[in-house]
Amino acid sequence: MLRRLLHSVASDDARETMVREQIAARGIRDPRVIEALREVPRHLFIPEPERPRAYDDGPVSIGQGQTISQPYIVALMTELLRPQPGDRVLEIGTGSGYQAAVLARLVSHVYTIELEETLASNAAALLRELKYENITGRTGDGYAGWPEHAPFDIVIVTAAPEQIPQPLIEQLQPGGRLIVPVGPRFTVQQLQLIEKDAAGAIRSRDIAPVMFVPLRRP
Which of 83, 99, 132, 158 could bridge across to 127 with cysteines, CB 3.0–4.6 Å? Predict the structure, then answer.
């Protein structure tokens, strides 16, 4: 019991340091986003052998050739999406479930798709254990989106396609925002913010060079 308590306190301290030095110090200003990063226990979304690196300034392996993104990138992508309490979100690439957990504290509901069945199952079990009731997940091809629940106010893609899948743009609500890293596999990609205006016109903005694992298909 004492060891578990000490580990919890250490994780809380590491998370607070992460938020202060990696998130706020780099210009993330939305107080709701900062609080979500402060509240979600990132270490629980990482396999035990890798947990000592949970709050490091970089991505961490979660198995199946996938990673959990650098904390700052999670915060940046979240802030750029301007999440509102009533928003409905589509996430492509559940991974460990961490990004979904952060967004679930800021929006009405998160629908999340993961291609790798093991990752999808592990994330679903953890999110249930942590009592996230506004996250719905499934295993499947993220390129197709989730038309049964469209349209979405926000679409977030956490792996890099070489081109933005058209169904994701089509499933974006007028006034919605889509964020996605775009570019070739295993090289520097461009993080893009796509916005659809009330008339359905699309505007794209390059944000920053990034490096994500590729968005895979079945």
Answer: 132
Contacts from 169-174 at CB under 8 Å and sequence distance 24+? Answer: 169/194, 169/196, 169/202, 170/145, 171/90, 171/145, 171/146, 171/147, 172/196, 174/198, 174/199, 174/200
pLDDT tens-digit series, residues 110-144: 999 999 999 999 999 999 999 999 999 999 999 99
For the stretch 169-180, pLDDT in tens is 999 999 999 999
What is the per-residue pLDDT for 218? 87
Catalytic residue among 8, 11, 61, 69: 69
User: In 26-185, where do the E strands start and end?
Assistant: 60-63, 66-68, 88-92, 109-114, 135-139, 152-157, 172-182
Residue 41 token pair? 């226990």
**Rounded Cα distance, 78 and 32, in Å:** 10
Kindly report the pTM of this predicted structure: 0.94
121 is catalytic: no
Tell me how far apart the alpha carbons of residues 148 and 176 are, in angstroms, rounded to a whole number. 17
